[in-house]
Input
Amino acid sequence: MRPLRLAMLIERKENLMVDRQPEAREKHMSSTGMVLTEVAWLDTHFEACYPEYKMMLYSTGMTAGWHVLDAGCGGGNYLPLLADLLGPTGRIAALDLAPENIAVVKKRLAAWNLSCSVSAEVGTLIALPYPDSYFDAVWSANVMQYFGDVELPTVLKELCRVVRPGGLVALKDVDMHLMRLYPADPFLVTHLCEASIRGSNVMAQSQGSLRGQELRRWLEKAGLEQVWQKTTLIERWAPLQPVERQLFSVGLTYLAQVAEERGVPETDLVTWRSLCDATSPENLVNHPDFYACEGQVVAVGRVAETVSG
Output
């Protein structure tokens, strides 16, 4: 089942971002103030990367009949896939920090008629509103990147707390080190990554978006067992599908704004600025040889079994 189609997903008339300041709209913020967390952007990214995202979710080891938390669910893109995976005896709890995202999830659930029970509520991963050992597994996609190194251990402790002994904690996150654009300077994104973590005001998300390949070690430090990790390159070539063009047009324009803010080399700014004009022949997305890839990492660990006295 694949009920998520771009024409249905991007509900721009209902998107609460229309009432926000221009900077928020340009950075696709939800009401949380976190960039790239509003529903329309999440929908586009999910639809453009659907085959890889489905494969990554299904690789985690979650099985039919389980009770699973989708921690940081956004607009609920993964819920139909989770429902198919868990079947009619499964249960899902969807949690997100942005109230408007949960409002979208509830509306979509009413239309989807999924095969298993799904609840949705507003909440934070810093203090999950669930009792200990409540779930068989947690799935959290592209959420850990919003937490700095100081906050992340607290979040992981909470995720482990709400999963039963022997259950799974499954995380998916980006690693911007693995992004490549062609034809462009091979160090274009590298320079942006470096500028983002070398500045005097490093944002938690900048730090987190470069941490994907370290997730296995973070799960091990959190006390999880049988931890494994797999990195997937999501690659796209010209000619692009419409949703792929939308993904890169929007995503690269956002990165161009970040490049201006972070002070990358002036030679790089020429390229980044061209990405803000969708009609420019200098825009990489319009090049007949355009290629882009991004790296997404799945890391899965098992909560330690209780040791009997």
Q: What stands out?
A: Residues 2 and 225 are 33 Å apart (CA to CA). DSSP finds twelve helices and seven strands in the chain. Strands lie at 67-71, 91-96, 117-122, 135-141, 163-182, 225-237, 291-302.
